């Protein structure tokens, strides 16, 4: 595959913009009074996220904006999230760069999709339903190419990160792995670059990136990614969906 072959040259060597950038350049959007671009601001106020306690029990709702505001004491509302790690059938992992207009962690590198289940039709959205919705929205993957049975719910991670001091994260993050060959057409308002990275080149590839890693991706990278990536053929044996891990985000 062309994208895979280019990834072997590493992004720091030559900039292959047409092949690495999202399908269409993001169009400049007007900013709101707080400096957030209009597309992102609409989602901040429209999306209703799920508040949880430290055992991941659903306890209420709040807007996406309120769930990511950093209070004066540095606290952020604890809410439910998910992170999808996407692999093709060869076992290469999709790595993406968040768009520069993202409210949290703009221009950071991360796994395929990181988002939230929402409160829809008076009930909490199921995690895999939310994952398929966002993979379709962010990466343009057709819904009919994402069989829910191909998702493996591995574990949950409770972490807190202050972000830029204005918007941050405090999540119980449900970690999902998905392996299949799918069509990808990124939404440029969400993703600016992507490529598939082979496992045996991943460690050398990370230092060449032109930006930092998101805190959730960095924690998984340090604590679990190698184990899971080495065992894509038997992930269900390693799954601990009832467990909530707490990892340190080591920069």
TrEMBL record:
Principal EC category: isomerase
Name of the protein in question: isopentenyl-diphosphate Delta-isomerase
Gene behind the chain: LOC106120334
GO molecular function: isopentenyl-diphosphate delta-isomerase activity; metal ion binding
Family, similarity comment: Belongs to the IPP isomerase type 1 family.
SUPFAM superfamilies reported for this sequence: Nudix
Cofactor: Mg(2+)
Record keywords: Cholesterol biosynthesis, Cholesterol metabolism, Isomerase, Isoprene biosynthesis, Lipid biosynthesis, Lipid metabolism, Magnesium, Metal-binding, Steroid biosynthesis, Steroid metabolism, Sterol biosynthesis, Sterol metabolism
Reactions it catalyzes: isopentenyl diphosphate = dimethylallyl diphosphate
Superkingdom to which the source organism belongs: Eukaryota
Nudix hydrolase domain residues: 77-219
InterPro entries (UniProt xref): IsopentenylPP_isomerase_typ1, NUDIX_hydrolase-like_dom_sf, NUDIX_hydrolase_dom
Enzyme Commission number(s): 5.3.3.2
Pathway where this protein functions: Isoprenoid biosynthesis; dimethylallyl diphosphate biosynthesis; dimethylallyl diphosphate from isopentenyl diphosphate: step 1/1
PROSITE patterns per UniProt: NUDIX
GO biological process: cholesterol biosynthetic process; dimethylallyl diphosphate biosynthetic process; isopentenyl diphosphate biosynthetic process
CDD domains listed in its UniProt record: NUDIX_IPP_Isomerase
This protein's GO CC annotations: cytoplasm
Described function: Catalyzes the 1,3-allylic rearrangement of the homoallylic substrate isopentenyl (IPP) to its highly electrophilic allylic isomer, dimethylallyl diphosphate (DMAPP).
One Pfam family this sequence matches: NUDIX
């Amino acid at each position: 595959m062309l994208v895979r072959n280019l990834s072997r040259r590493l992004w720091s060597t030559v900039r292959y913009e047409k092949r690495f950038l999202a399908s269409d350049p993001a169009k400049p959007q007007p900013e709101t009074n707080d400096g957030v671009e209009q597309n992102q601001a609409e989602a901040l106020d429209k999306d209703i996220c799920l508040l949880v306690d430290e055992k991941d029990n659903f306890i209420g709702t709040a807007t996406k904006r309120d769930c990511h505001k950093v209070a004066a004491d540095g606290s952020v509302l604890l809410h439910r999230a998910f992170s999808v790690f996407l692999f093709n059938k060869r076992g290469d992992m999709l790595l993406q760069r968040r768009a520069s207009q993202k409210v949290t962690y703009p221009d950071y590198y991360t796994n395929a999709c990181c988002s939230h289940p929402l409160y829809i039709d008076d009930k909490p959205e199921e995690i895999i339903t939310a994952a398929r919705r966002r993979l379709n929205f962010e990466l343009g993957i057709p819904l009919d190419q994402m069989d829910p049975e191909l998702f493996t719910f591995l574990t949950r991670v409770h972490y807190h990160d202050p972000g830029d001091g204005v918007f941050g994260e405090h999540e119980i993050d449900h970690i999902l792995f998905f392996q299949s060959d799918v069509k990808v057409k990124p939404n440029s308002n969400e993703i600016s670059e992507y490529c598939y990275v082979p496992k045996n080149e991943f460690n050398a590839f990370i230092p060449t990136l032109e930006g930092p890693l998101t805190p959730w991706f960095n924690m998984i990278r340090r604590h679990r990614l190698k184990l899971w990536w080495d065992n894509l053929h038997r992930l269900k044996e390693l799954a601990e969906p009832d467990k909530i891990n707490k990892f340190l985000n080591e920069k």
